[in-house]
Specification:
The chain has helices spanning about 25-35, 100-110, 140-150, 225-230, and strands at about 1-10, 40-45, 50-55, 70-75, 75-80, 120, 130-135, 155-160, 170-180, 185-190, 195-210, 210-220. By secondary structure, it is α+β, with helices and mostly antiparallel strands. A 5-stranded antiparallel sheet has the order 8-12-11-9-10. The protein has a 4-stranded antiparallel sheet with strand order 4-5-7-6. Strands 1-3-2 form a 3-stranded antiparallel sheet, with no helix packed on it.
């Protein structure tokens, strides 16, 4: 489901021909933070007033997998175009996870009444879209896990941030400490007790309307490390608090 919405930058005013109700920027950020929407935005004016034009996209959490979601498939592997908002594996929300959706897809496509085997190879955070690779056999799962462990696999991420990175390319190394009670991870420049070493390479590859596109190549695979390390650089990802 898509719709457009005008949001004033300076005052609580909505043009009469706007779609649906208006919301301020804090409401937009809250919806995105709760993983209910993704959006694009464009700054413009209406009757000489400054506005931000938002395009929203909602992803129903129980939308089934179809052929258009499949990027690659053979007898051993299947690659899925994960939508923002999907969870890869079950969590406390009770929402149907991506791995269960893919199992149903395979079982229906190949007429497997007893269900299908599916191995989770890696994960992406719920707000993140991108390629998710699953193993269709136990042998493939074992081999792919070994390839990830030996770092034969390379993963590349793109992130839109609010600030230009300085320098525009480089290597980031931090030690991460997670507070499980607050579900917050903090980065430290030096080694700290209980910290996990996190390392990535990044470079600025694009700029549009005051937003910057950064390409990230993580060397380690710590939870949320890209978000935390870019924020520590002074470049929080758009939508993060």
């Amino acid at each position: 489901m898509n719709f457009v919405q005008w949001t004033p930058l300076e005052e609580n005013y909505c043009p009469k021909d706007s779609y649906r109700e208006c919301a301020d920027l804090s409401q937009i950020m809250e919806l995105q933070h709760e993983q209910l929407i993704t959006y694009n935005l464009k700054r413009t004016t209406y009757n000489s007033k400054p506005f931000t034009f938002f395009t929203f996209e909602f992803f129903p959490v129980n939308t089934p997998i179809t052929d258009k979601d499949i990027l690659y498939e053979d007898n051993h592997l299947i690659a899925i175009n994960k939508r923002a908002g999907d969870i890869v594996q079950a969590d406390d929300t009770g929402d149907e996870p991506l791995d269960e959706k893919v199992k149903k897809y395979i079982a229906q496509k190949y007429n497997k009444p007893n269900g299908a085997f599916l191995g989770v190879v890696h994960r992406l955070d719920r707000p993140v879209s991108g390629v998710i690779l699953f193993a269709k056999t136990s042998k493939a799962l074992d081999r792919i896990n070994k390839m990830f462990k030996s770092r034969e696999m390379k993963k590349t991420y793109w992130a839109v941030v609010r600030q230009r990175p300085v320098p525009e390319s480089g290597n980031l190394q931090h030690w991460l400490i997670k507070n499980p009670q607050k579900n917050v991870t903090k980065a430290y420049n030096g080694e700290v007790k209980g910290g996990q070493h996190a390392e990535l390479n990044y470079q600025l590859i694009g700029e549009l309307n005051g937003y910057y596109l950064i390409e990230v190549d993580p060397i380690t695979g710590r939870p949320h490390q890209i978000r935390v390390q870019l924020s520590t650089l002074g470049c929080p990802i758009v939508g993060d608090n």
